[in-house]
Amino acid sequence: MGNNNKADRAFSGRAAGCVMPVAKGEIVKPIKDKILSARVETEFFDDVNTVANMENMDRAAFIVAAVEEKMIRIQYPVKAAAKTYTPDLATHQRIDSQRTEVGRLMRDGKWRTVPEIQEALQYPPASIPAIGARLRDMRKPKYGAYTVDRNKRQPGLHKFRVTK
Prior knowledge:
Elements: H1 24-37, H2 42-54, H3 59-75, H4 89-106, E1 112-113, H5 114-120, H6 128-137, E2 147-154, E3 157-163
Antiparallel strand pairs: 1-3, 2-3
């Protein structure tokens, strides 16, 4: 137990149903039994041999590396990336139009709330989140790198001003 060899270290064998840390000898048999009881098709062994050869590894080393990688993935699962939303042409045109109209109104440097912008542009109330997004767009270099100042009027209500 005193050395640092992975195989000799005591560990908690969750896979074997152990709760307390156990020595290597107490965990090996249940793990081996579990591995040997797994149903594996013979084509799998052919695939393992093929891939191990491609990786210039012997079969045992390849299997150990694959099991270690799987254990890491179980400990640190990688979350799947969200699907990327790709807007259609009509959506691009609508957003570009909103960006142009919001920008034209706000470049005068006057302070306005988002509802005031919505009223001035005669947008429906449902477009309030989109107006906030267009104000954020104006900060981006590809849309002019404007300074969008925000002044809190009351909880949940801000006035915005756009300056260069």
